[in-house]
UniProtKB/TrEMBL annotation:
SUPFAM superfamilies: UDP-Glycosyltransferase/glycogen phosphorylase (SSF53756)
High-level lineage: Bacteria, Pseudomonadati, Acidobacteriota, Terriglobia, Terriglobales
WsaF C-terminal domain: residues covered: 245-365
Alphabetical list of Pfam families matching this protein: WsaF_C (PF22772)
Organism: Edaphobacter modestus
Family matches, as InterPro entries: WsaF_C (IPR055050)
Record's protein name: WsaF C-terminal domain-containing protein
Amino acid sequence: MNLQQVSNQFGRRYRQLRKFLSRKEARTILDLIRTTAAEHIRPKNVPLPVGRDQVLAADLSHPVQFLIPDILPGKPLHLNWVMVPPGPGSGGHTTIFRIIRYLEAHGYINRVYFYNVYEADHQYYESIIRNFYDFHGYVGKMEREMEDAHAVIATAWATAYPVFNSRCRGKRFYFVQDYEPYFHSVGAISLMAENTYRMGFHAITAGKWLAQKLNAEFGMSADSFDFGCDTSTYCRSGNSIRSGLVFYARPEATRRGFELGLLAMEIFAARRPDIDLHFYGDKMGKLPFRFIDHGHISPAKLNEIYNQCYAGLSLSLTNVSLVPHEMLAAGCIPVVNDAVQNRIVLDNSFVRYASPYPRALADELEALVTNQAFDSLSQAAAASVHGTTWDHAGKTVDSIFRHSLANHKAS
């Protein structure tokens, strides 16, 4: 680099720094420094969420026909659930264990096998599913071969590979709660996730959108269950005073549209500074408008917040989350981005849909705050999900297993 090039580079960096300092954007500078440092220290070979040996062993051109043990009258069905070790409060694992508890209560024997590619402490995560998720059955490791079962169930794309490669007996199922290739930038990892839909498993999906998508695009056999709602936790309080809005804010989960939601809330805050804005999901730190930063909170506390709010902003760019149903149960009207998957899965006339740009979302939120008939709207919204229980979802999954296994036996 010659002297003129050095001078040009120095001048460019100086002008950038002066511009940042003139705006007094200390956080912007700090974020830039952190980003630059992270890029330098980030490992070039990031570990895959699935073992290389599992990907290499999975020959999708020759799907295996798995035998299943005999289904004996009066005897329980045995299920092997293969999952990554869960932390407390994981939404996906919460749904899985709700279904497992229902099946246990109706005579199934459930086993859990951890697919632990990062070699996390098995005993610690076993304690989590026993104490937090109330599971009391067998918990094993995928390092050893699974016992035979009537059904072997993958629960995330990385677990589909060891389920495909395992030689234990049992019909293969895939408990699909979202379209996971969308979780990754387009590339090798997203393709590895997509390939799991070509393994010949029978899909059981959370909501109809995924079942339709997997069947149409991959020819998968697929059934679905409708989302339940924990109405014992989320419910409308008749004496609550509503004075705010709530935003489900998850910056690290790109499918929840955090940046879009944040812009919508900024617009709303400028229009209505008298309305309290409640953020939960992750701690936000400083923002350019007034808000209440709840971060991670318990379901009981969340229900209290919902009962203080006219409406809640919950964005879903892939499959919908459980949040809109929980808001509805508390009489808090969910505003979501207008998208085919949200309309198919939610299927509730009290959900408000808005075009996915900031002003449209802010407009819809403001319309709810100024609605003169809000109290009656809130009561009707809560009533609309009153009978939407997880027992209904469990019953549907029970029926899917029994029908699919019976048909497999007949064939």
